[in-house]
Amino acid sequence: MIRSELIQKIADENPHLYQRDVEKIVNTIFEEITNAMARGDRVELRGFGAFSVKHRDARTGRNPRTGESVYVEEKHVPFFKTGKLLRDRLNGK
Amino acid sequence: MTGKTLTRMDLSEAIYREVGLSRNDASQLVESVLDHMSDALVRGEQVKISSFGTFSVRDKAARVGRNPKTGQEVPINPRRVLTFRPSHLMKDRVAAGNKR
Known about the structure:
heterodimer; B: alpha+beta; three-stranded antiparallel beta sheet; two-stranded antiparallel sheet; 29% strand; Integration host factor subunit beta (chain A); Integration host factor subunit alpha (chain B)
């Protein structure tokens, strides 16, 4: 499923809403989650999962092709942990 | 970094602000979006949200695990797990936003 298919499903279920509003609604949800993580906040959606930011220390990496050492700066990366309900549903529980 | 935790309520609030729906309708739409994504994943589909990221379901084979406390071997059944791969845009925005 891609973003446009998700928008279509929501639009079909809500014939009283304009298509452009449905687009805005779906986009707002993903935009808010990204904005929260960009601020270093967590987003917890019980039953679905939680988005958080993990810190990665600086390290000396290696170019796998040349074997050359390269310095990799510390950084923050997005992380998602599946919620219990969804994890159980994936396994038919 | 403010270290806050957002919930469904904050997402509904954003929809109320951006689109002007009632908070009640907004929260029902948040739920529908999460339900459709979950249903697709349970069917084994990938959920690909451009410029956000991709959720995919992977099959894990059975293996022998170990209770780290007792050292006892325990069988781990085959199972399906969900992985999220953030888009480059999200990675860049999260990295830039948290840079000190």
